[in-house]
Amino acid sequence: MLDSFEKESKLHSRRAARARQMKLMEEAAAGLPLSDEADQYSTTSSNNLAPDNNIAERFSIDDGDEDEGPPSIFTDTASSHLWSSRTGHDLDREELNFVLGTNNDNDGHGASSAASNNNKLKSFTSGWTSRKEHEESRKLIMMASRRLSSEPNNVNISPFGVDRDDDDQDIENNNYYQQQRHRIILPMCCLDNLKFICALSLLAVALVAIIVAPSVLVNRNSTDGEVPWNPWAGGKETPLDMARFDRIKDRILEHRISHASVLEDPSSPQYKALAWLVRDDERHVDLPQIDDEGSKMTGNNVDDEIALFQRYALAVFWFQTTDSEIVEESLGMTVENPRDIAWNNADGWMTSKGLCLWYGVTCHPHQSYGVKYDGDFHVAMLNLTSNNIHGVLPVELFTAFLKMTVLDLHQNELAGTLGREMANMVELEDLFLNGNSFKGQLPDNIGALRSLQNLNIHDNEFDGPIPVSIGELENLRELGMFNNQFTGRIPLSIGNLKNLIALYLESNQLTGNIPPVIGQLTALEDIRLRNNMLNGPIPTEIGELKELRTLYLDTNKLSGAIPTELGTLYKLDDLQMYENGLKGKLPVELAFLSGLTTLYLDANGLTGSLPEEFGEMHALEELIISSNEFTGELPATIRGMKSLKNFRGSDNQFQGEIPIDIGKLLKLEYLMLDSNQLTGVPPVELGELKELKAVHLHDNNLSGEVPEAVCDLRNSFFLNDLQADCEDDIIICECCTTCH
Questions:
Q1: pTM of the prediction?
Q2: Alpha-carbon gap, residue 484 to 433, rounded angstroms
């Protein structure tokens, strides 16, 4: 009995709450100000007011069980502030349609439910007989909703503005209401023409499918088998304009800039470069348009086409040396981190800037834009020195730059071979590839580079013979090929290089004689043939090289006497012929080389005495004649070598006393006279040589005592290496660093 009474009480309270809600909505629809009176009125008249249960069910959230009392959103404590307590929620259009009697329910309640709702709301809509009044009422209710929703409230609000319970039962009973709130409400005109709108929408979708689908299929079914990827789009696939791709590709093949096979391979740097040019390059460089297919391009059209080829070739070089997989394949190495092969400086590369502003690229001056400009024009110079570039040189670097004058890539990590395509760079003047890991033979058509002035390919791994065609480089001024593995003889054609100033062939495996034709290179200033396996005599024709300043012939197998003709090389300042098999006496004519500063003749089989005339060599700083078979006394004229710093005469057969005149060599730092047959007492004049750092007097027949003045040099100056035969008291030396 008590339980039944409680249920009846709850049901009564719930119906009263709904009645108050309906009263508030009436006031809002009529444009009346909302106040607490509405609450009081609804409270006193709740017993007389009989709200329609269907209306409440249509508008509120159904709790499901009538016995559970009113839903939490309609509790008595909050009903008087139902509208004023709303925060952040305007009146739902669905609720508004319900109040005004507009039918917008098509999801299961059907027309019967809508009709029932309309009949039960005649008290609200009886005065609205025109569309204008209808629309004005809608606006009033919406305005009231927005005004009340702006009032502050710190309470957690349900969709209708009152606290809600969060138990599972309430959530389950809310489903129907949530479905109603998220339905898209269309205007009346759309509902009246719903079939027409649906048909129009389907037609638009069909048109889009017809237009887009064929282009996608064409790209996916192209001959290359896949749609290339844009490496800068974060993995987003973008189709190529295959018509433009093929058009540019055909021109590239026509000009023999690339091989056809690589342009068919999507993994090749050539394909990737062309794809970038067509799809991703914001510069949008394209082939010039020609009105008549049979007409030839001239003037600016030719320049534009070449500029496109060069932009393509630089892109090939970029992918060839920055793509990890390509670098790994070309060098046979593993790239642990892409940063390991990243260029030190790549400013401007692969951007929308003109290639003339890419780092390391210098274009020929433009008649309109000057020297430095944002454009695509003939490249004059590519200088990427010490830029951490890994990989091989693509052939496009030699086939696309017909007007390039300087290619400088030295001190990088480049490898591979140089192909015959290099001969295309007919205007190239400077080629610097030194300090890399290139290998293989030089192309035999290298002589086609007739404009070449500087060829530096040293410090690589080139091998094989020096091409005979190198003699065709008649404008060559510097030939640097040292520190490689070249074999065979020095070609006789080298005698044609009349303008050659520097010839660097040291540290290879060259054999045979030094060709006498070298005497025809009268412009030569520097010859370095050291550290090879050259044999035979030194050609006397070298005496014709009057401009010669440096001559390195050491570390070979040269034999015979030193030509007296060397004494006519008056500009010579550095002569090194050590570690050979030279015989005979020192030619007196060498004393005429008044400008000579360095003379290395050690480790040969030279005989005789040191000419007194050598005292006239006032500029000589280093005289190295150790490990020969010199005899006789050291000449007193040695005092004339005022600039001498390093005198090494050990391991010979010099006799007699150490000349006291040696004390005049005030710049002397190193005095090595060990392993000779010198006699007497070390001269006290040695104590005058304040710059001495090392003195070796051991393995001689000296006696007596090392002068105290020399020991003072040990204690107060730079002398830190003093050696003598003091171990068995042959000579007394209290300050020697080493006794023998």
A1: 0.68
A2: 12
